[in-house]
């Protein structure tokens, strides 16, 4: 083999070794890239863990105290107000005395004949309930002319209410085409109706923000408990419940 052939063979061997090393390096880099891609795929935050809304429904739909409208609808029966309506009007007047401010407004539907006498009866009932404020008279346009439009009595005063409207669904609960609903969190509308019902049922709106003053203790119960402790007895109340078996009368008579 000539010197030229030896030089060519050595150059070819060096190029082959360099190509193999480059191929191995490329394969290693490719494997590393695949691993990195797989790891990044496993760590991807498909559904964010950050809550879209406050987790507590009391934070999403809080009960607040506000100066709001309190209204009562009066439906005359036979061109007059019955005993049930009188009782409701008395309770309405007592609520105004406790939480109302300004004037009480009585609104008749349009210019219906015969409402003047009923308005006079409503004013007398409110006065008998202790209402001494000014009473304004007006009218309103019924939304449906054919419906039984009531006479409305209203005032502005302290009231507990939920300001956020119920029935809103900003996200799908079980979407198959997106990631909405995958976080296993309470939905936005959850608790809104419950909060609204509680706000409407509580008699004194101030109970939501401050407790009431404790009343005096029962002297007889306190004395009995102290005497029991002094005598080494249990001061708790021993409740007795008499139960009758099913199928037996209270007199002890049994079946055949």
Task: Give a description of the structure.
38% of the residues lie in helices and 16% in strands. With 256 residues, the chain is α+β, with helices and mostly antiparallel strands. Among the domains are: 63-158, OmpA-like domain (60s Ribosomal Protein L30, Chain: A, 2-Layer Sandwich), CATH 3.30.1330; 162-210, no CATH class. Strands 1-4-2-3 form a 4-stranded mixed sheet. Helix 4 links the parallel strand 2 and strand 3. The radius of gyration is 40 Å and the shape is flat. The N and C termini lie far apart (127 Å). Residues 43-47 have low confidence and may be disordered.
Strand percentage, roughly? 15-25%
**Which CATH top level class of the domain at 63-158 fits?**
Alpha Beta
Major sheet attributes: 4 strands, mixed
Please list the strands of the largest sheet in the order they lie side by side: 1-4-2-3
N-to-C SSE string, H for helix and E for strand: HHEHEHEEHH
> How far apart, in Å, are the first and last alpha carbons?
127 Å
CATH topology of the domain at 63-158: 60s Ribosomal Protein L30, Chain: A
Q: Pairing-aware structural class of the strands and helices? A: alpha+beta
Beta-strand segment tally: 4
| Broad shape | flat
Report the radius of gyration as a whole number of Å: 40 Å
CATH homologous group name of the domain at 63-158: OmpA-like domain
CATH architecture of the domain at 63-158: 2-Layer Sandwich
What is the mean predicted local confidence, pLDDT? 79
Helix content: 25-40%
Q: Low-confidence stretches at least 5 residues in length (pLDDT < 50)?
A: 43-47
Helix segment count? 6
């Amino acid at each position: 083999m000539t010197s030229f052939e030896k030089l060519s063979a050595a150059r070819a061997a060096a190029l082959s070794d360099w190509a193999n090393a480059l191929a191995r390096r490329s394969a290693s880099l490719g494997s590393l890239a695949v691993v990195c891609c797989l790891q990044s795929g496993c760590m991807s935050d498909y559904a964010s863990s950050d809550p879209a809304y406050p987790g507590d429904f009391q934070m999403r739909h809080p009960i607040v105290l506000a100066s709001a409208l309190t209204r009562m609808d009066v439906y005359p029966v036979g061109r007059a107000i019955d005993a049930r309506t009188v009782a409701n009007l008395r309770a309405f007047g007592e609520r105004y005395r406790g939480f109302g401010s300004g004037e009480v407004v009585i609104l008749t539907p349009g210019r219906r004949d015969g409402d003047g006498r009923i308005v006079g009866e409503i004013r007398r009932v409110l006065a008998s309930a202790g209402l001494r404020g000014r009473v304004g008279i007006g009218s309103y346009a019924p939304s449906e002319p054919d419906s039984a439009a009531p006479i409305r009595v209203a005032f502005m005063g302290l009231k507990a209410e939920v300001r956020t409207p119920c029935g809103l669904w900003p996200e799908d609960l079980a979407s198959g085409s997106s990631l909405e609903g995958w976080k296993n969190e309470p939905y936005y509308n959850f608790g809104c109706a419950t909060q609204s019902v509680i706000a409407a049922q509580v008699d004194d709106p101030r109970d939501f923000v401050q407790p009431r003053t404790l009343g005096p203790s029962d002297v007889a119960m306190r004395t009995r408990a102290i005497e029991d402790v002094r005598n080494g007895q249990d001061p708790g109340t021993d409740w007795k419940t008499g139960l009758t078996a099913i199928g037996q009368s209270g007199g002890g008579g049994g079946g055949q």
